Amino acid sequence: EQNCYLIIQFHPKDTPCCFQVSDQKPLGSWTVKQGQCITCPAVYNSQTKEYVVVTDEKVVRVWKDEDISIEKAFKATVSAEVYRIHSIPDREPVVLFRCGAVRSLDSLLSAPQQPVEKVLSEEEVIRWSTVVQTEQQVVLLFSTEQKDEHYLYVQRFSPNTLVKHRLETHSTPLSFAATYRDGNIHLLYLFSNGCVYESVLQTRPTGLAVSESVQALPRSVLLQLPVGEGELTSASALPLDEAHVAVVGVPHPSAGTGKDYLCLWNTHFQTLQAGRELAGMIYGQLWCYSGKLFVPHGKSLSVIPFECQKSSLASAVGKLKQTSGTKESKAPTLVASWDTLLHGESTQTQKSRVTRKSVRHMVGSVTEVQKDMDAFLCGLEQGELQVAAGRLASELVARCQADPTFYPQATLMQLVETNYMCHSVCPNLLMLALEKNDFRLCQLCLQLFHDIPEAVTCACLKTILSVQDAELEQVNLEADSLLFMKTLTQTTDHSGKDSGQRNGFSPQVLEEESCDVPPDPVTKDKKPAKDPLALDMSCPVGLHRGVLINEVLQTPYSDNLLLPHLKDLTVPQVILLLQYLRFLYLKYSQDVHSQIRALRKPAVTQVMDWVCLLLDAHFTVLVLAPEAKDLLSSLHMFVRSQVKLYSELGKIEGSLEALKKSKKSKEIGQYSIEVIELF
């Protein structure tokens, strides 16, 4: 499935952060100077693989993933205040100024101080904007407000035309949404009185390039929503297809006051298809991307997968019957790593049916539960299994906690292997596995759960480091991961016979090769001490312990959240883990891991990230611990070898750039000799 990434900026003075939605983990964050204010949401330029943001209204900043600070990246001050930058897949981003002028990002950055024309009238303020991509061109839409009058501007680029429409309003427009469908642009807008209107705009303009007259915008009533007492203040409507609309911030017709809902409405039959209560404050914001709804509320962001069935009267009133071989409906589907689900009425009925069927499976012995569960799961359709897996696991875990003698390990494994579970669905499962020393289930959860909290990750690590190797050797772990460790530990070290280096590292590094420590004339004639890096290459842990540590190393985490919990590890545990990480890196430096075929193995960057985290969490204690002296010395020498590598690479950087920029001769035959002068 295509990965989904989200750029979040929580406050104008906060730093933008990039999150991978499926793992709920931050991928990067970038800082701005104190006193600077982000005045335009950050966007991603897919053409250049760069992020773009505006600070203090006029400063456009461009940076890449590897940049640490936005301040040190490219920036340009433009001549007018920027309202929004809109990113377009596989196209140049579009910049909309507060005065209504429009520029492409590339043309703007090539001449930042170019004059910008004023399109809007005095006291006319932009309230909303978006871009719509058609087969032939990109269309920019933005709405404005001036003295309680509302207007819509349509900016087309090929040819370059601008049309201004007047919105006939008897109340305040709260949200706009535009989609491209059937060769036209469909504009959907929600008013504070609960009316949802739709206007159809042609992609090809008629008339002059710039229309001086204000044109009326034809519209039709699409939906009349219940508003209760008074008018709506913070709400949003979003079209999902030609017959369904998602609405947030509008009262549920069957719920009491004071509750906020996300609802799906059928516009053909004016019926409510699904509803979900949302906790916390509603901000009137709603987005749709790649078949998922994004809804911020309170301190949460709910990401809700959805599918809409074909509109019909039977489906609108919930009476759609099933035929053989047909799914019950294209109801919202469960994606394990998202924390919020929106279920339609049919799915709620489905959940109740699953609950009634599964209650009787929660009693009896382990053998009886396993037998009944096998028969029960075999009779479920995919949609029912999605609902049942987490609920059944939660009920089994609850019984295990109440009755210590009851532990259906095979049944729990079976439910996790359905791939319809995550940690948030059954948060006590992994801790129960640790309590029972069920490391096979623990390994499976570490592999399949992408939302494990950092505290639980550290609890797993601490348990793995505490258990004796003899006990772990009795556990039946995954064969592929065991094979990786067995092959890695049995590989012979040939570094002493080969003077070459892998990844800039050689175990034969000498003290005099250091690029940052001058030689000591007093100790120059002494016999050199044993090189701490020239150590025994045997693995400091058993195979099974190594397998489980590898799973922890590959678990998603946030540095800031993981670091405090790492401090709970004891000094012997930290030293053992650092020794194992050093062993992994020594093997990786010889490219041993690349010769081993395995489905899952930690990357070298993951190994180094964990080394850095452990040193950050325990550096003072390790410096004072005599048993850690040799380990820290060897890690220090490794760092120096890396510094020397990058220093040598820096010396040839100019030559490599010259080769890259050198122009190839056009008159090249089948054989030629070309002389390139490097300075």
UniProtKB/TrEMBL annotation:
Signal peptide, first to last residue: none
Residue span, Nucleolar protein 11 C-terminal domain: 388-679
Domain Nucleolar protein 11 N-terminal: 17-306
Keywords from the UniProt entry: Activator, Nucleus, rRNA processing, Transcription, Transcription regulation
Pfam family, one: NOL11_N
Source organism, top-level taxon: Eukaryota
MF terms (GO), sorted A to Z: RNA binding
Main location: nucleus
Entry-linked InterPro entries: NOL11 (IPR042859), Nol11_C (IPR048897), NOL11_N (IPR012584), WD40_repeat_dom_sf (IPR036322)
Cellular component GO terms, alphabetical: nucleolus
Subcellular location as annotated: Nucleus, Nucleolus
GO terms classed as biological process: maturation of SSU-rRNA
Residue span of region Disordered: 492-530
PANTHER family: NUCLEOLAR PROTEIN 11 (PTHR15633:SF2)
Protein name per Swiss-Prot or TrEMBL: Nucleolar protein 11
Protein's organism: Astyanax mexicanus
Source taxonomy: Eukaryota, Metazoa, Chordata, Craniata, Vertebrata
